[in-house]
Write a structure and sequence with these properties.
Helix content: 25-40%
Strand order of the largest sheet: 1-15-17-18-13-12-16
CATH superfamily of the largest domain: DD-peptidase/beta-lactamase superfamily
Low-confidence stretches: 1-29
CATH class of the largest domain: Alpha Beta
Number of strands: 18
Strand content: 25-35%
Mean pLDDT: 89
Largest sheet: 7 strands, mixed
Number of helices: 10
Structural class: alpha+beta
Order of helices and strands: EEEHEHEHHHHHEEHEEEHEEEEEEEEH
CATH architecture of the largest domain: 3-Layer(aba) Sandwich
């Protein structure tokens, strides 16, 4: 039994005939794919459900823009920039070829509009304009992209530009793109941008259509980004959610036109057929009560901070047990959402998942008179 310092009460529940598999990467023989490199990842846990040459360093083409959007979302979240900021096109931005919105020097859009141009229209000129707005120069922004890659622990990634046109030393891998995709799911803005099917610029005179056809063709698809160059061939980093089960797929180096969509759907079909998500507790479920000393309330409910569950291989769900660790008493003041304990999911002796148990409401510290009154009531039973 694992112990947590300061935690006194441990409740162990054994659930018969339910299990959470410790999913290991499967062998490529189970799927045939035309992709040079591919991966299927469980978004909740990061478990690899399928891979083929997933660490091979390859040119990502415009899938690069997923990191561009992620770094921009970071800047917005930190307050460095705002979606309502005015972004002005530069000569440098307007000189880009490839996918573009034909940005003119001096032309202005809001940052939000530019991000839609990148996410929906794959605008290379928009990438440079946004980069210059956020960090002053395109080069400084690319440095931020590489710092973000380092922070995520990516071993097979290096960016030279923010848009993905071929350049020496510009590469990533299917595995690293899956990690970037998983990080992007922490930013609702990124999924909102990349799930948008169409968007109007210049008062509706310039319509953008999302290049990710999975948004139309595959149930539950709601992100991220396509890419193509002669060097990179067809690439796609995407995500699909069905019945609370979210997967991430990346395919790189697919030779056929639209093959990145076909190969992604094949891989998703495999994932949804072979695996499923088993939920133990939904978010905000009450899993205990903690006594409160010196507080205006005598107790506080312990709720799950997030849904508790794990991805399992169908037909192999057994030997699950759940351990709930909860401090039986805590002193006020208490903040709403304050950690009170945690609940751990195991399969045999292998930890599968854990979720914090948090306070359902804030409790202020009681005044001296109130504390004395409660002590008297407790002592004499008033």
């Amino acid at each position: 039994m694992r112990k947590i310092s300061g935690f006194i009460l441990a409740m162990v529940l054994v659930l018969g005939n339910i299990g959470f598999a410790n999913v290991q990467p499967v062998q490529a023989v189970e799927i045939e794919t035309e992709a040079t490199s591919a991966i299927l990842m469980d978004a909740a846990t990061g478990q690899i459900l399928y891979e083929k040459e997933s660490h091979k360093q390859l040119a990502p083409a415009s899938v690069t823009k997923l990191m561009t959007l992620l770094v921009a979302a970071d800047a917005i979240a930190s307050g460095k920039v705002k979606l309502t900021d005015t972004v002005t096109g530069s000569a440098n931005a307007s000189s880009l070829g490839g996918s573009q919105i034909y940005l003119k020097p001096g032309e202005t859009f809001t940052l939000e509009q530019m991000l839609y141009a990148i996410a929906v229209g794959s605008a290379n000129d928009g990438c440079v304009a946004v980069a210059e707005h956020i960090d002053g120069t395109h080069e400084a922004f690319v440095e931020e992209m590489n710092l973000k890659a380092q922070a995520l622990g990516l071993k097979d990634t290096h960016f030279v530009n923010a848009y993905g046109l071929p350049a020496k030393g510009h590469y990533t891998s299917a595995f690293d793109l899956a990690i970037i995709s998983r990080e992007a799911l922490n930013y609702p803005l990124v999924r909102k941008l990349t799930s948008t099917k169409e968007y109007d610029l210049r008062d509706g005179k310039f319509k953008l259509w999302n290049t990710n056809k999975l948004l139309w063709w595959y149930q539950g698809a709601d992100g991220f980004k396509t890419g193509w160059t002669n060097e990179a061939k067809y690439c796609l980093a995407s995500t699909v959610e069905r019945n609370g089960f979210r997967l991430i797929s990346v395919v790189m180096g697919v030779p056929q036109v639209r093959g990145h969509f076909a190969e992604s759907m094949k891989i998703y079909n495999y994932g949804f057929a072979k695996y499923e998500f088993k939920q133990f507790a939904p978010v905000a479920q009450k899993l205990g009560v903690v006594k409160v000393t010196k507080g205006m309330d005598a107790e506080v409910n312990a709720l799950t901070e997030k849904p508790l569950g794990a991805t399992v291989e169908k037909g192999k769900d057994k030997n699950l047990w759940v351990e709930t660790k909860l401090n039986p008493m805590i002193s006020a003041p208490i903040q709403k959402g304050q950690k009170l304990g945690e609940v751990l999911l195991y399969r045999d002796d292998q930890l599968q998942a854990s979720v914090n148990l948090i306070a359902d409401h804030a409790i202020a510290k009681a005044g001296l008179v109130e504390q004395m009154t409660r002590t008297v009531k407790g002592t004499f039973g008033f």
